[in-house]
Amino acid sequence: MEFLANDQGMLLPLLLSCASIVFLFMFFTRVKPGSPPSPLRLPIIGHIHHMSKRPHRALQKLAQKYGPLMLVKVGPVPFYIVSSAKLAREISKSEDTSIPARPRLKAANVLFPGHRDLIFSPYGHFWRHARKICVNELLSLKRVLSFHHIREQEVAKMGEVLRCNKPSSPVNLGTMFVKLADTIVRKAVLGEKYGGDECSKLVGELARNAADLVSGPCLGDYFPMLSWFDTLTGHTAKAKRTSQGWNKFLDQVIDEHQARPGHAVARLDDAKDFVDILLQLQKEDTVGLELTRENIKSILVDMFVGSIDTSAAIMEWIMAELAKHPTIMKKVQEEIRRVVGDKKKIDEQDFQHMEYYQCVIKESLRLHGPSTMARQTSSATTLGGFDIPGDTTVFINLWAIQRDPMLWEKPLEFKPERFLNTSHGFKGQDDKYFPFGMGKRICPGSQFALSEVEYAIANLLCWFDWKLPEGVKPEDLDMHDTFALVTRKESPLYLVPSLHNAV
Q1: What pTM was computed for the model?
Q2: Which region is the signal sequence (predicted)?
């Protein structure tokens, strides 16, 4: 009887413990009526335990279980994750009303005070006119073509460096592509004067820091009560230092442009850089927007943050996929060399005759384009039949959509042929292929990046034959990526160039 009494005395605490566990489980797995499915979350940290250093991959895996729209919390902050092309298209159609803006980030507040740039400005009067300036004046097809001499000059320099490379010596193409993209952007945005090596280190560091700040983790964005911790980690100081660096440098650039006699207005149209154009628009005051110096500097920073890493990463991924698939590389080289013929260089009009080469670029972007798009709801709305609160971030997992087996046959395979005789383009109007985004927030610099990538890679494939370093087999090539504004190759790509006999 004494044993039974003791046993009953232990039973009550045990039952209370079990009840507490059940209550906590139900509390942290509960979903509000009308909300999309959500994985099990933990107290305080939410769903962080489901994430990894490659969140686009972790979110794809969760979507396979919880569906194309799910709720994920990072700390107390909710995020709605979209992993289907149908829902992504639904968002693009609602941009004028409920899901028009970018999320507000601490780093962006420091880098772009008042969000007076293009990338992070809220949807409204300023954003519409700033985008119009970028699309019609800075990044129009005519303007992009006017920078052909810069692309030609810098790609020729890269070719000379490769010709002087020690035979059978591997070349770090990742580093080479970053330098190429950086120089082309600096010359187009700031002018020929700023294309030298003395400017490269400063601008390169500022651009990398800015890109890392707006794409990397910031505790205050997810745990507002712990914003002070960003001061201890150095995140806040880095953002302020980067902002001050950009301001000091661009103030000097603008002053030097304005000091020229007649500055922007006196220059030939084809010789104008982005600073010239923006200063001219500021002077003429015809764009429906007061362009302040701060606006101009913010738009210029956008050009660097959104273009250097994107172009360099795309070029590296194309060469990596071709190195991993030597038969495809041989086929595309034969096409390029056949079109070029006896000419010593490629003309941009040649690309319309390189159908398979265009397919290679499209397939590379399908597999390795930008990983996510972020939107901020301005008011409560519905998506896919579920309720989405106002002032909430919606992430579109492009990486997952471009690998959706419901959309693509053998989606993990590199098959350029899938784009032959199709209408899939880069303008975001396709039902399932939109590597640069879609809707009004589609990347306005896609044509600038594609022109650079198209010209550089075609010449490298025409001038040189390429192989992996000795001892490395195609199937062993490391294709792991990292998460950022654009999915970068985690380990640098080393290939061995040899001058093609016909060159």
Answers
A1: 0.89
A2: none
